[in-house]
UniProtKB/TrEMBL annotation:
Organism annotation: Novipirellula artificiosorum
Residue intervals of the EAL domain: 24-280
Domain of life of the source: Bacteria
Annotated signal peptide: none
Protein name: Cyclic di-GMP phosphodiesterase Gmr
Length: 295
């Protein structure tokens, strides 16, 4: 056995490590100029009212079209942006682009009930001292009513920097921007944080939606989350709805809104134009609202 853990194995390991380190360094290098290179864009995933089927919002999701590597997932480059601090200028661009888009959508949908746009923000961005001021400036620059912007934060943000983050979130909330707790149930926050922090909406993580079966423990957890949220005047959005059965189950659990591939994948505003311009004559309860139409 000892023979195999010798020099040769070490060399292989070294090589693999070297590969991944240089890939990571290359990623970091091109991330440094990504804004200048115009490599980022935002896609948007519709969020629907579970009962009426009306679109109530969009979640913005950043995309990186890399010149040689093709599309790079945010799950791969956002962590690098966070570690290097590049998330601050990149996050600022995302916020501005989202606000430009809100302005554009308002123009497209004159006379129709406005929809909000949710932007994912990292801990590092909110921790930046100028963040609230930046937020106010961007809203003003793009003439966006604060009510049309939501910020999605994660449980780790609240758990790891509790003191000044409370004050920061309160100031954001006072601007009129809603705060949505993303991926709820996957982190380590306790349910009591819903009460301690100004959180307007809970987003139930996709993993619960994917796992729960009628009558099982996961369904009980989701039910408990929804009931508690409602008692605290907090709305609930379910993430990652992929099947009509999941949709039906979540409706029965009294979930307010949902998003997922069943309704629509994340798309560009141009691709979503028909959906955004659609005005429903009777926004009444229609159990058969057309999730397939937007595919
Ligand atoms: P998230 O905020 O929880 O976003 C939801 C992710 O689930 C998105 O992945 C979305 O495309 C995907 N998704 C939506 N519906 C379904 C479904 O029905 N089935 C499945 N399997 N997946 C679904 P995406 O776009 O790859 O983003 C991954 C994560 O990267 C996001 O998770 C978020 O944490 C982060 N991210 C994305 N955009 C930004 C951004 O602008 N800023 C920051 N800080 N983070 C971002
Ligand atoms: Mg999100
Ligand atoms: Mg999420
Ligand atoms: Mg997620």
């Amino acid at each position: 056995r000892a023979k195999f853990s010798g020099k040769h194995c070490l060399a292989v390991f070294d090589h693999a490590m070297h590969e991944s380190m240089s890939r990571r360094l290359a990623l970091e290098e091109s991330l440094r100029t990504v804004l200048k290179d115009g490599g980022l864009r935002l896609d948007f995933q519709p969020i629907f009212d579970m009962v009426t089927g009306d679109i109530v919002g969009l979640e913005s999701l950043v995309r990186w079209d890399h010149a040689t590597q093709g599309l790079i997932s945010p799950a791969d480059f956002i962590p690098v942006a966070e570690e290097t601090g590049l998330i601050v200028p990149i996050g600022r661009w995302i916020l501005e682009e989202a606000c430009r888009t809100i302005h554009r959508i308002s123009g497209m949908r004159r006379g129709v009930k406005p929809i909000s746009v949710s932007v994912n923000v990292s801990k590092r961005q909110i921790a930046d001292h100028d963040f609230v001021e930046l937020l106010g400036d961007v809203l003003q620059t793009y003439e966006v009513p604060a009510e049309l912007l939501n910020l999605e934060i994660t449980e780790s943000l609240i758990m790891e920097t509790p003191e000044d983050i409370t004050e920061r979130l309160t100031r954001i909330s006072n601007l009129g921007v809603q705060i949505h707790m993303d991926d709820f149930g996957t982190g380590h926050s306790s349910l009591s944080c819903l009460h301690r922090f100004p959180i307007d909406v809970l987003k139930i993580d996709r993993s619960f939606v994917a796992t729960m079966q009628p009558g099982d423990d996961y369904e009980s957890i989701v039910h408990a989350i929804i009931t508690l949220a409602h008692n605290l005047d907090t709305k609930v959005i379910a993430e990652g709805i992929e099947t009509p059965r999941q949709l039906q189950q979540l409706r029965e659990l009294d979930c307010d809104c949902g998003q997922g591939y069943l309704y629509s994948k994340p798309k560009s505003i141009d691709e979503l134009e028909d959906l955004l311009l659609e005005v429903k004559p009777t926004p009444s309860c229609n159990p058969a609202f057309g999730f397939e139409r937007y595919e």
